[in-house]
């Protein structure tokens, strides 16, 4: 039979053998018979009195953490939790959160993480779509949650101390679900990725070997549990005898997270490039013992160079949620050029294929397909999408599958892989994975919007979402209203920073939207409010900081920080700069205050209310602040570093 030209093999037999076999020799022994929580239970037997977890001033040993999780697990079993039963957990960062996660696994269930800051509509959708029977939460966040028909257990008040503290026998096996994490979906609704115990156990076993972790290590955990990389931060130390230090939410207190790094004798920390940049902006100077893990989006050479100056080693991590957290690691060395994503981790295969699923030669770009023990079961309640993204593996054993990542990559001559970009409309912003069509679909539902296109653009060194709108006939979209509309259904990181109204969208010759021809958003304030200039010294300081962080020429006292393109990581920058510039005027400013008072006038008024009536006059305070700032500027860098490190 005749063969199409496009299907002719591009490689010689030797090249095929190298790409398909030699570079995929990743076989590595790991405890396939164990579940995730059993790795922790084994460690409890080895080091019961070692400190397992720290949060604020609270410490729990391995045996104490195990006992608390067991008591809750027995209670969950009595509520019907067992293998393949999904249990939602929505909690602020604390040891309670850790106890809850372990208890769900020990009861045999699978956890579905929810973020308390998600809008109620999104929380309601995930609870309904996952069919979660039980919800673990805290009294402090209960009022943020939608109505829930199942059982609610409060981690901070319902711990069943009368229950047994022995390990429960739930009959869960490695093929059962460990967790289901919801990621952005291209159809306008998020999708749940189902990960089994065996995939996580393989992943942790590989990570323990490389980048490596030992019982003496201290890992500082900063990531929300709704981001799958949190599983490494929590379970890798607990399965190896190391210590996990939970920090407050980075978005709530960047300075406290930085302080935790400095005071906890941290030896391992993981974060996205955006997290690392933010930490450096608020004073992170690193230490010679620190192993930095960086992933979630492309690692630039510039950032890699800065991190290498602050650490013992730096590791670039790559992997989609569908293949269990990280699928490739690479130790980054000083140098120039792009940073490689490295090679596949243990028991993982990489294939770079063309559109006909044929391997491409070294140096030629193709879509990365991933196989091996880390593959997800698929998407919860989405069989068509699962069949589309998880395809039969033409190079493996019968029944094996490959995940189509949508990532465009190429092999280097040494077998390492270079990341190029996406072949679809998925983007990474501040480490968060976002399907742009999900935002576009919601915007198009607004009564004033006829068409919507959303892209990610690099603006002032920060990747921002920009929405382009064509209004309905005789309609005038109000930016503030559109932003509020999206905030009711999307998490903060998915709400565009800029909205640009166009008469029509630019098109390519074949009639598709020409995204490259979309204009840059203007770096000027949105005229939602009439400009009112700062009226006093505090307002002038606030305005200058906002202008610097937001890259704007002017900011009025009634302008809203978030409607000018601000987001949570930029809030942390503002917090750090204000605490220096307002030194002596008001040192009690918190990140939460900046979210509560998003305009300069309301924030300045809040400052005024907090001033002690018996304090010196404002002029004296300002004079003292100026002297302190000047003294700080004159200090050598090494002294400042010592201050930061306590």
Structure summary, number of beta strands:
26
Shape: globular
What value does the Rg take, in angstroms?
26 Å
**Overall SS class:** alpha/beta
Residue-averaged pLDDT, rounded? 86
Roughly what fraction of the amino acids lie in strands?
A: 15-25%
Lateral arrangement of strands in the main beta sheet: 2-1-10-9-11-12-13-14-15
Number of helices: 19
Beginning-to-end CA distance, first to last residue: 75 Å
For the sheet with most strands, the description reads: 9 strands, mixed
Provide the helix percentage: 25-40%
- The poorly predicted ranges are 612-646
Q: What does this entry look like structurally?
A:
The chain is α/β, with parallel strands linked by helices. 32% of the residues lie in helices and 21% in strands. It has 19 helices and 26 strands. The protein has a nine-stranded mixed β-sheet with strand order 2-1-10-9-11-12-13-14-15, with helices on both faces. Strands 16, 17, 19, 20 and 21 form a five-stranded antiparallel β-sheet that branches. Strand 25, helix 13 (479-487) and strand 26 form a beta-alpha-beta unit. The chain starts with 12 loop residues before the first helix and ends with a helix.
Features:
single chain, 646 residues, alpha/beta, 9-stranded mixed sheet, 5-stranded antiparallel sheet, 32% helix, disordered C terminus
